[in-house]
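Revision sheet: structure tokens.
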Amino acid sequence: KTQSLEKMSDLKSAAVFEQLEKKIAAEPELVKKVQGVYQFDITGKDKSVQSWTVDLKSNPGKVSKGTGKADCTISAGDDDFVGLMTGKLNPQQLFMGGKLKIKGNMGLAMKLSQLSATQSKL
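Predicted:
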């Protein structure tokens, strides 16, 4: 039996990735809409970094713990990432304040809102 993504991490963000996994399974059309692979590097309070890869290029899309070949890499602190994905924090303000770093395809970064739109269940 495989561990759930949430059980593998002590970060609050782990719950976001678990919800994202459910959203991708429920909305396979996200793969057609996004057409890219994200890597998220999340920094915890202890300054350790944990990574997740969200593949929305190949069907079916999937979420996995660890790094992969990403088109867009997004780095943020745990609390900032949770705030971003739940719609509580403004992505432009996080980016301008240096709390959200983006490498790679900026167009994919703009599509991030399609993933976060229904995350407010957290």
